[in-house]
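[job 0412] stage=complex_fold ligand=adenosine-5'-diphosphate status=START
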Amino acid sequence: MIDIQDVYKTYTSGEQAVEALQGVTLHVAKGEIFGVVGPSGAGKSTLIRCVNLLERPTLGSIRVNGQELTALTPAELRLARQRIGMIFQHFNLLSSRTVAGNVAFPLEITGVDPVQRAERVRELLALVGLSDKANAYSAQLSGGQKQRVGIARALATQPDVLLCDEATSALDPQNTSAILELLRDLNRRLGLTILLITHEMNVVRQICDQVAVISDGKIIEQGSVVNLVARP
Ligand code: ADP
Ligand code: ADP
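[job 0412] stage=complex_fold status=DONE, emitting structure tokens
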């Protein structure tokens, strides 16, 4: 589902060059939950931003569902983005919009008509257990509830893949567990492929099938979680 082949990313500013990714190769199968774990500065955000088309790799190939992402025209890019959902550490909700308004946002952008949009928003809020919060604003929600809104919004356009950027790092242990359970549930019920990055081995242990360890822009270890990570 996600094929990352020999990807390099170098950031240059003036004389300075940072080699954030140095030949990363990963294969995420359809329906898998794949974790990339590593310390701060290892290149995790750069990697996930390349898959989400927020950055372009300097070299290498990234294919999602067979489509090469590094060679898309701007119009193709917009369509490809709808096939890839993403959730964030700090949720990135629009504070001026209600919960339903946030979830409806990607559907407005893609031109879904108001009747279908409202129906889809209701389905999505039910999916993440937030039907009773449709008209609340994000300031009135807990962290765990905010991330549920993030998940509903990310799934609005029915993506093949969900990318999670430190999605539970701002949450307490209880909310972390609840969000990880929801992600596992969505993975099973929708067959959703999930690629997550985290600095917490605990997250990997709780929900990932496969794990890759990244350090200084290189994958130094890769395999199934049962083989690589001892469960408590
Ligand atoms: P992680 O997510 O694992 O903390 P990052 O991908 O954010 O790692 O960073 C990898 C390296 O790339 C770090 O040395 C970081 O300072 C550098 N870096 C990240 N983003 C940029 C950028 N926009 N410009 C320059 N350097 C960057
Ligand atoms: P906001 O004030 O947050 O912008 P709006 O009431 O303008 O919210 O609605 C934005 C979008 O959210 C609309 O497209 C509408 O379809 C959807 N929406 C709003 N409230 C609900 C609701 N209770 N159930 C389902 N969809 C809703």
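The longest strand covers residues 16-28.
[job 0412] exit 0
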